[in-house]
Amino acid sequence: MKIVFMGTPDFSVPILRQLHKNYDVVLVVTQPDTPQGRKRVLTPPPVKVYAEKHHIPCFQPKRIKEDYQPVIEAKPDIIITAAYGQIIPETLLDFSKYKAINVHASLLPKLRGGAPIQRAIERRHKTTGVTIMEMVKKMDAGDILAQEAIPIDTLETSGTLFDKLSNLGAVLLLQTLPDIIHQRITPIPQNPKDVTFAYNITREEERLDFNESVLDLEAKIRAFHPQPNTYTVINNKKLKIIWGRVHQCKNFFKNHTDTENGTIIKHFQDGFAVKCPDGALIATQVQLEGKNPMSAEQFLRGAGQTLAKVGTKLA
User: Fold this and answer.
1) In angstroms, rounded to a whole number, what is the distance separating the alpha carbons of residues 233 and 217?
2) Residue from 125, 123, 119 nearest 149 by CA
3) Cys staple from 103: which of 82, 146, 168, 265, with CB 3.0 to 4.6 Å?
4) CATH number reported for the structural domain that contains residue 274 in this entry
């Protein structure tokens, strides 16, 4: 069985690895190399790195909608995608012997879109999972072929959940492919009443708003970790809040009922507390612009002595 695989980030690699071990992957399609880091070094996506290491032909079109002839020429029996990052042209969806399928990191029809892992954590969902689905023109709207759910841990980050769902997706795909090949699956249409969306994260969303619930802020920090991370502005300097914890002791706030949200109200041994409407977010790991990540304890012994005094308002 000849497979064309389309994927780009680390999430896609375990899925590609399992396909490569068990089937004939004749072509990998991934996004173009992108500049990374302060020096903007042109860097290949993880899927390309795997493909080149294992001598699998790799195709990197800027726009797959306009440039897909190598996929046609590969004559695949099936096209499989996992976090590719571009909309697949309709020409390719029904081109192969079997319908194109996608490995999606949510329990569809919930969380359609490009950031289902981050949004599941940010919205404080208790469970998520992986869906194997038929691909159609409309985003993530195809019939469901298989699903498996897992719980979201209380300290889950997008990094840890990416790993779990990537490996789960690889296992579920291998279990599902024989049933697809032998036509043992009855596709299940998605219920339009249950549809929610998980749109890509914008730069504006990375900034914390301390008028929001402290539980929501803590969830956002975990959802945006390890990338892109959340931030605030302290004395006109950008300060990433890489990690934090919730403090909701009522006695602790009895002297701060009139304090404006976003104000530093106390230093702890492991960080500093920022007032929110229903508690305080204690920042425990930070990164000041131009500096390396550090514990909040280290920050308060250094630049934080001046920048993060009690009473300082974060913006």
Assistant:
1) 15
2) 125
3) 82
4) 3.10.25.10
Rounded-to-integer distance, Cα 125 and Cα 8, Å: 26
Cβ atoms within 10 A of the Cβ of 242, count? 21
What is the number of domains present in the chain?
2
| pLDDT tens sequence across 267-290 | 999 999 999 999 899 999 999 999
Does residue 109 form part of some domain?
yes
Task: Supply the range of the domain harboring residue 154.
Answer: 2-194
For residue 248, what pLDDT is reported? 81
| Last residue within a domain, chosen from 160, 194, 228 | 194
Please answer whether residues 205 and 123 qualify as being in contact, where contact means their C-beta atoms are separated by less than 8 angstroms: no
**Residues 173 and 94 both lie in one domain:** yes
pLDDT classification of 250: cutoffs 50, 70, 90: low
Quickly list DSSP for 278-307: TEEEEEEEEEETTS--EEHHHHHHTTHHHH
